[in-house]
């Protein structure tokens, strides 16, 4: 999606992606696994805890992609997505075209699985989400999760318009360069 060099990042597009779901389902681990290819045991992060509820509306505002994450070994994290998180999403999400993906994490613990793949697919269909199962620990399907989400966002022109100002600046700059009279050379 972008290239970097000499300490600066130059992106063609940038999107606001949210990861939501119960505590300890592996939201931060998924992100770290995608970015760095390494997953250590991470300390619990604060997003979603009750004392931060006043930030909820700004947290959702303008998101172009939302990843709803559950732990396939903990049924309550799955049921809470439809009972709690999906309702909150409907209440606060400002982009109607926002791409949503349901992700069942921790498939490396197959022997402890309590939520079947079929149940996940059914909920995804009910909520109008893409669906993937993955493991932040083994990195199975982690890249596919974010890449598929980004590709779907790019298929929605209205979402791209609400995206990166960097892209708009680059396009504007390119137009200006094309409009400049050529310098040097000789006339025919």
Any overview of this molecule?
This protein is of the alpha/beta class and 188 residues long. It has one domain (14-171): Rossmann fold. Helices cover 41% and strands 16% of the residues. The protein has helices spanning 27-36, 56-60, 75-92, 117-127, 142-154, 157-161, 165-179, and strands at residues 2-5, 8-11, 17-20, 65-71, 99-105, 130-133. It has a four-stranded parallel β-sheet, sandwiched between helices. It has a two-stranded antiparallel ribbon with strand order 1-2.
Question: Gist?
Answer:
By secondary structure, the chain is of the alpha/beta class.
E-strand count: 6
Q: Indicate the mean pLDDT.
A: 77
Helix-strand category: alpha/beta
List the secondary-structure elements in sequence, H or E.
EEEHHEHEHEHHH
CATH topology: Rossmann fold
Estimate nothing, just give the exact number of structural domains: 1
CATH class: Alpha Beta
Total of DSSP H or I helical runs spanning 4+ residues:
7
Which architecture name does CATH use? 3-Layer(aba) Sandwich
Largest sheet: 4 strands, parallel
**Portion in helices:** 40-55%
């Amino acid at each position: 999606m972008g290239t970097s060099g000499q300490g600066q990042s130059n992106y063609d597009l940038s999107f606001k992606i949210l990861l939501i779901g119960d505590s300890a389902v592996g939201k931060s681990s998924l992100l770290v696994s995608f970015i760095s290819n390494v997953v250590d045991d991470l300390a619990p992060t604060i997003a979603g805890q009750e004392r931060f509820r006043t930030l909820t509306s700004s947290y959702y505002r303008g998101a172009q992609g939302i990843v709803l994450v559950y732990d396939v070994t903990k049924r309550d994290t799955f049921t809470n997505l439809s009972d709690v998180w999906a309702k909150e999403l409907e209440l606060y999400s400002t982009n109607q075209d926002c791409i949503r993906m349901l992700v069942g994490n921790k498939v490396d613990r197959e022997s402890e699985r309590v939520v079947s793949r079929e149940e996940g697919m059914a909920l995804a269909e009910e909520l109008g989400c893409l669906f993937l199962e993955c493991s932040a620990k083994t990195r199975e399907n982690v890249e596919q999760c974010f890449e598929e989400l980004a590709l779907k966002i790019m298929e929605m022109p209205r979402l791209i318009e609400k995206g990166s100002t960097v892209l708009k600046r680059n396009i504007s700059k390119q137009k200006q360069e094309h409009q400049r009279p050529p310098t040097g050379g000789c006339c025919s």
